[in-house]
Design brief:
single chain; about 475 residues; alpha+beta; Anthranilate synthase; 21-stranded mixed β-sheet; two-stranded antiparallel ribbon; about 30% helix; globular
Length: about 475
């Protein structure tokens, strides 16, 4: 099948009708088209030269209802400050008016915008200095897995200086990138040879000292909860480099009950993770979210695993922590909904290394509401920050040893109508060729013990630590000072 045959004659005819209208509009105009990829499996294109584009996002939802790969940026915007979510909503609304579709969106729950937001609305620092506090973009090419194959949704800019036929050839050229893509030279991963660059005693001492300060604040009454995070760094050695794509694919295999993601918005590093925690998902007036709080490790055998799960269900401390998160999510959603439905008791959500108390919530919105507006109401939840939020957030910014960056922020996608799916970006890491910065956090409430919370973060870090893949590099190894 030729490239033009794969896109179909009806879209060609629709394009020539659409372009006349679009060329008369004042702002730059874009057209989205649909075709089918020659090879099934969106993520299979991660190992082609296409995925070398600095604007790349890979996504695989926990229920496997959405697997996609976004490549390139046709239009993008950064967001910072307290208005970042409303600014993002405005960007999406304006950009949607600039995009014409060669196929109807009815029945399609397709990403039109992808990206995410940092934990804080301030510009990140440290290893995140090149990352904005928020970033959304319109992919140039989007590959989405469907039951009948992998759909390609492309977006091209219309050039008013060109004839309609020449503009159509731009569409064919964009699609041709998929048909002509060739696998990259993917080296066989080496054994994970890496060096821990943390100072364990100093790091642990700081965490315990800070945790005890927070627990004192909680026990004395002003606060209900504080979520304290820490980092763990790895450095490649002996002529090797971290392989973000191979690590991402291993995460998806290791953590099938999590949403797996990778974001590489125009930087040399990749932010990736496998998160068990959805933030929000909307379809029309239906909204779904989740309270995930209260943790125990998995057992080394069935008996021990069952005992940990029983302890999680019966623990007054863990139930209290979970109830704080659940109540706050309901309170923050209440202005937008008539009624919120959820089970009376939380269930135990078991992952490979850890198990959590989980309550799934669903509600009907009073009216269709842009997902950025709902994110603004929910983020950050007490599961990743604390209560009261306005007091805890400044304290965390002052006392945590490292900038969270996009850790415990949110990543996801939305369509042209403001529906979408965003997750809480925990169990995650910033991956460069030479260094990986992995993150984990623990919720402190009344009755928490600092040493136990340290052990909890160690357990949570295992999902990233065991997934890291290292391959050979042509660059000489770095000499450690």
């Amino acid at each position: 099948m030729s490239i033009e045959q794969s896109i179909g004659l009806p879209q060609r005819e629709a394009f020539f009708h659409l372009i006349q209208d679009r060329l008369e509009r004042p702002l730059p105009q874009f057209v989205r088209f649909q075709a089918w990829a020659p090879i099934s499996g969106a993520w299979s294109y991660l190992n082609t030269e296409l995925a070398n584009d600095p604007w790349t996002m890979a996504w695989s939802s926990a229920d496997e209802s959405q697997n996609f790969l976004a490549i390139g940026a046709q239009k993008a915007s950064n967001f910072v400050g307290p208005s970042r979510f409303s600014d993002a909503e405005a960007f999406c609304s304006q950009t949607r008016e600039q995009i014409g579709d060669l196929y109807g969106e009815e029945g399609h729950y397709n990403p039109m915008f992808v990206g995410g937001f940092a934990f804080s609305d301030a510009a990140p620092g440290g290893p995140w200095s090149s990352w904005p506090a928020g970033l959304l973009w319109v992919p140039r090419l989007l590959l989405v897995d469907r039951p009948q194959g992998t759909e390609v949704i492309g977006c091209v800019a219309i050039d008013p200086a060109l004839t309609p036929q020449k503009n159509w050839e731009r569409v064919l050229s964009a699609l041709g990138e998929i048909y002509q893509s060739q696998p990259c030279n993917v080296a066989r991963p080496l054994d994970p040879e890496r060096i821990d660059t943390n100072s364990p005693h100093e790091e642990k001492a700081h965490f315990l000292r800070t945790a005890n300060q927070a627990i004192t604040q909680i026990e004395d009454g002003p606060w209900d909860k504080v979520v304290l995070s820490r980092v763990h760094r790895f450095e490649a050695r002996n002529g090797t480099a971290f392989d973000a794509v191979a690590t991402l694919k291993k995460l998806r295999r290791d953590q099938p009950d999590c949403t797996t993601f990778l974001v590489r918005g125009s930087t040399e590093s990749a932010f990736l993770g496998a998160t068990p925690e959805p933030l929000i998902r909307t379809t029309g007036n239906l909204v779904r979210t989740c309270a995930l709080a209260g943790s125990q490790p998995r057992g080394t055998d069935t008996a021990r695993d069952t005992e940990f799960a029983r302890s999680l269900r019966e623990s007054v401390k863990e139930q209290h922590e979970h109830e704080l998160v659940l109540a706050t999510i309901k309170e923050n959603l209440a202005p937008f909904t008539a009624a919120i439905s959820h089970s009376e008791q939380p269930t135990v959500h078991q992952l490979r290394d850890v198990q959590h108390l989980q309550t799934v919530l669903s509600a009907q919105l009073h009216q269709p509401t842009h997902i950025c507006h709902l994110i603004d109401a929910l983020h950050p939840t007490p599961a990743i920050a604390g209560l009261p939020r306005d007091e805890v957030l400044p304290w965390l910014a002052e006392h945590e040893a490292n900038d969270r960056g996009w850790y415990a922020g949110t990543v996801g996608w939305l369509d042209g109508s403001g529906n979408g799916h965003f997750v809480v970006s925990i169990r995650s890491a910033l991956v460069g060729e030479e260094q990986v910065t992995a993150y984990a956090g623990s919720g402190l409430v009344s009755g928490s013990q600092a040493e136990s919370e340290w052990q909890e973060t160690t357990t949570k870090l295992q999902s990233i630590a065991t997934a890291l893949v290292i391959g050979p590099t042509t660059q000489p190894p770095q000499v450690q000072p």
